[in-house]
Design goal:
alpha/beta, about 40% helix, Serine Threonine Protein Phosphatase 5, Tetratricopeptide repeat, Metallo-beta-lactamase, Chain A, 18 strands, 7-stranded mixed β-sheet, 22 helices, about 15% strand, Nonspecific Lipid-transfer Protein, Chain A
């Protein structure tokens, strides 16, 4: 329960909104800012900002430096004989440029290699900042599985971006931190995508490489992602552990939307690091650690907490408990729950439990009600009917809010909004409940998600951002096979239920082929030349990227002969109209 002062502040704010909801936009904005500032964040979360709220270059050992506080993730520099290696590149070109400038105060040696520890945007999207003019292109290393992880992310990019904006609190005025860093630095110009795809990839458990005279072992340590790797510098006893460890309870499931993470893989990866007995541990979030004994104790507690959540979830799952019931029962033992690296400032045990359940049994809870449930809209209408109509449900929700029963009040208000989207009283109640629930969270993720959603309900935030710019940036950067693969999830069967056609694309600048086959209301993509097809398109990759972005570019390219279509331009246009454009 929130403290009395906060409850009073929320109720007063609700009264202030009162029947005057349709004020001027400026008045609403000022009132919302007062409302947000009246809700006190937990002290633990505020104090957590001290870990990374200052931009600094920390020297780990003789030739290893970590850039902390410049972005959500750290960027790490390893200095070699005639060049440097950059491990992780932040989430934006702007942040990456600042990091490189700071590194240049230490050395002017050229960038010989970039290493991606894993696919997440805050580790890969700033790569172009580290590509310097008039200097050779560096090798870019990653695990082979990174490409599959990129593809999975790209498929769900629109909803993934929106939910990430909520989780990281990018848009809220009272942002405190993001749990593993101060703030996700999203580039204003969505076209400035700094991702460069890897040029050197390895498979299996590990790979020894030498760059600029530095001997390194790339070690596959799946945890937060399946493609994650660490970097072991045996001569200095330094291990770069990526996101397998940070100063918060791990995000064993991310509410922004990810596949359930394998807790057993994560604990096994931590065991690998323990076996190496590093003297220095350099996370890609938060500050480096020194001292074999300190690091051993931390890693042991961290992996034991993860295993505890796994084991206890499975234990109660086998007793027939449902996910929400298990989440209410599983709690870390006191000595783990109070460990400074296991406080639930980022991930939470509650969300993790549900992720474990899903890993083993999937979406079905086991309750037959969930086999064929009412849709959210159907359920909302039944709730409202049972509750005595919209006005009565709003009154009941307000009464629950006044009592501090925020979860019930939010449930009722949300049902009303589904039935009556313009109901300003329900939106007011829902937003106040979400802010109050956000105030109860020490998890930055939970607080940010609640607060962002509250302002979305008020119509004050748009978490979708400039989707058109992001799409253009992706189109210009993605490998052609990846770009075409995205068309699979943009096909509209309701528009083209009977289309059965194969289009062969020949890209003359790279002498490559891609086939696109529409059949049975699905799209199949191939990467080899075919002898049987209905339409053939001949052009260059550069021209096709611009055509994908702009209809005008398509007309210009066709008129100028930069694209040749064999099989009928009308037929081709009809096939392309089967795919969503926005």
């Amino acid at each position: 329960m929130a403290n009395t002062g906060v409850v009073v502040a929320l109720v007063l704010a609700a009264a202030a909104f009162g029947g005057n909801w349709l004020w001027s936009r400026q008045a609403r904005k000022e009132q919302i800012e007062r409302l947000v500032s009246s809700v006190r964040a937990p002290d633990l979360l505020k104090q957590h900002s001290n870990v990374f709220n200052k931009k600094e270059i920390i020297q780990v050992t003789g030739n290893v430096y970590s850039a902390v506080g410049f972005a959500l993730a750290n960027s790490i520099m390893i200095v070699g004989d005639d060049g440097i290696i950059i491990v992780d590149v932040t989430e934006s070109v702007v942040a990456g440029t600042e990091v490189l400038a700071a590194f240049r105060n230490i050395t002017s040696k050229p960038v010989k290699a970039i290493i991606y520890t894993h696919n997440h945007a805050d580790h890969t999207y700033g790569a172009r900042a580290f590509i310097e003019k008039d200097k050779p292109m560096p090798e870019i290393w990653a695990h082979r599985s990174i490409m599959a992880e990129f593809q999975t992310f790209f498929y769900s990019a629109p909803i993934g971006f929106q939910r990430a904006m909520r989780q990281f609190g990018v848009l809220i005025p009272d942002h405190i931190n993001s749990g593993i860093g101060m703030k996700l630095r999203v580039t204003e110009d969505g076209q400035q995508l700094g991702l460069i795809f890897p040029t050197k990839m390895f498979v299996g458990i590990e790979r020894d490489i030498t760059v600029a005279g530095v001997k390194m072992k790339l070690v596959h340590i799946p945890g937060e992602t399946a493609d994650q790797i660490g970097v072991w510098l045996p001569d200095q006893k330094v291990f770069l552990c990526a996101d397998d460890v940070y100063r918060a309870f791990p995000n064993l499931y991310a509410i922004r939307g990810t596949p359930s993470r394998s807790l057993l893989d994560w604990t096994s990866s931590l065991d690998k690091i323990i076996d190496l007995e590093p003297h220095y541990l350099v996370p890609s979030h938060t500050r480096p650690l020194e001292g074999a004994a300190i690091i051993m104790t931390l890693l042991t507690s961290y992996r034991d907490a993860i295993q505890f959540v796994h084991d206890q979830t499975v234990r109660f799952m086998n007793k027939g408990l449902l996910p929400d019931e298990i989440a209410a029962k599983v709690r870390l033992p006191e000595h783990l729950a109070t460990h400074p690296y296991l406080i639930e400032l980022y991930g939470t045990v509650e969300w993790s439990v549900k992720g474990v359940f899903n890993t083993y049994i999937g979406w079905f809870s086991g309750d037959p009600v969930d086999l064929s449930p009412l849709t959210p809209d159907e359920l909302a209408n039944r709730y409202i009917e049972l509750g005595g109509g919209v006005d009565r449900c709003v009154t009941t929700a307000q009464e629950a809010l006044d009592k501090g029963d925020y979860r019930w009040a939010l449930t009722l208000a949300s049902h009303v909004i589904r039935v009556d989207q313009q109901n300003t009283n329900a939106r007011q109640i829902a937003s106040l409940c979400m802010m109050a629930l956000g105030n109860q969270q020490i998890s930055a993720n939970g607080r940010n998600y609640f607060f962002t959603s509250a302002l979305e309900v008020l119509g004050e935030l748009n978490t979708k951002g400039n989707e058109g710019n992001r799409r253009q940036g992706f189109i210009r950067a993605a490998p052609m096979a990846t770009l075409f693969s995205m068309m699979r999830v943009r096909f509209m069967p309701e528009t083209c239920p009977n289309t059965n056609t194969t289009v062969l694309f020949e890209f003359t600048d790279f002498n490559t082929f891609i086939s696109l086959t529409v059949r049975n209301s699905i799209t199949v993509i191939g990467d080899r030349p075919l002898t049987s097809y209905q339409i053939k398109v001949k052009t260059t990759e550069a021209v096709w990227r611009e055509i994908t972005i702009s209809k005008m570019a398509a007309l210009t390219s066709y008129a100028s002969g930069e694209i040749e279509i064999d099989g009928g331009i009308i037929h081709f246009r009809n096939v392309m109209s089967c795919f969503e454009k926005d």
